[in-house]
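Let's do one together. I've listed all components of the complex below, 463 residues spread over two lines.
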Amino acid sequence: MSAVTAASIPRLHAKARLQRDEVRDRDVLLYPEGLVGLNPTGAAILALCDGARSLGDIVAALERRYGASGLERDVTAFLGGLAAKGLVLYGP
Amino acid sequence: MDRKPLWLLAELTYKCPLQCPYCSNPLDFAGPRFKRELSTAEWCRVFREAKALGVLQLGLSGGEPTLRPDLEELVRTAHGLGLYTSLITSAYRLSQERLAGLKAAGLDHVQISVQGAEADLSDEIAGSASYRDKIAAYHYTRELGFPLTVNVVLHRRNLHQVEALIRLAESLGAERIELANTQFYGWALHNRDALMPTKAQLAAAWQVVERERARLGTALEIVWVLPDYHEQFPKPCMGGWARAYMTVTPAGEVWPCHAAGRITTLTFENVRDHALDWIWEHSEAFNRFRGESWMPEPCRSCPRKAQDFGGCRCQAFLVAGDAGVTDPVCSLSPHRHLIDAALADEHESEEWTYRAAPASRALSAALRERA
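Okay, and this is what the predicted structure of the assembly comes out as:
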């Protein structure tokens, strides 16, 4: 696998689906025989993984939304964790 | 602590064209207890109540769930509720048209069993000529874009094929392969002597799994379900009794796991009589072994109790005769010698009984007599 850069485009694997979990008041990522509970930031990151935005676009959008800077490391680490589980793929 | 269920296994029917001797279904599946199957409307109500209770993952299983002609409607309802739906099927006579219809209804994931890596052995273990249908259905799932799990129950007669099974799943482009060492409940317990693997077989298979995991990485997830009789400590069965999981049987009984119905010292409620949330919160069967207060020694003072929850209640009942004792698999259990005896037996010439309705009715009568 080639290195992940700001130009890489993350997307959810087709087996994974975002779902609202009303009972626990959170979003979850569902996939075969498993799920990941998401905090609001994680859910916001995944909502931006639309297969068109690059990692750099996603970081910029989140920094604008939260009025923050330097989010690149956190976003990359979060998506990297899901990529290690095969739930997020990176494409050009 | 979150004490709402995340998982529901819906056993839609116990009818099945396969006769696998390790089937986890009850021995008396063909008896009167499971005769009156839930209607479409009743299942849809169960799914609504499950979602409202916190369930996110729905397994549609059996028996063979595709024998239900209303499967598409059940999937459509579950999908509409936001449940992640998995079809757990033998794929016997499963056509591309049927799968396409299920895809259109919102089915998320397909799990298809196979009993061996080639037709002769697979069909022999399944007790039916089904391998060709399975391979065809694997390809249909790829063409339709389903995530695919290949499921294999492992035992003495097929453990030597682990590498070939992984290669098969890889060549099909599956997302996951579940290599599930036989857990001894239902028919598997009845056929335990014929299915029990040797230590050497398990060691060799595990070596293959480790090597193939390193080679395949995330391209193919290899799940290895531990052969718990051969372990030193029990499995954290279902993540703890009545903590995250429930099974609804074809006739509407609700169990904390798909084997619990054999525990004759518990009373199980039915969705025809009670709402699912009442059964989850208040029924005797769900509360009996919830948490830690039921635990005897050696569990009570054991630091592992938060890890393994005392192991499996069904196994305690089936092997030691008391659902309220430490799982006999545990090396600290006073009943461990019963597991060791099962491991030490000379198994070479044992025949198994296929899971089939006539055998079930005979065993069902025998069970009633014993009770």
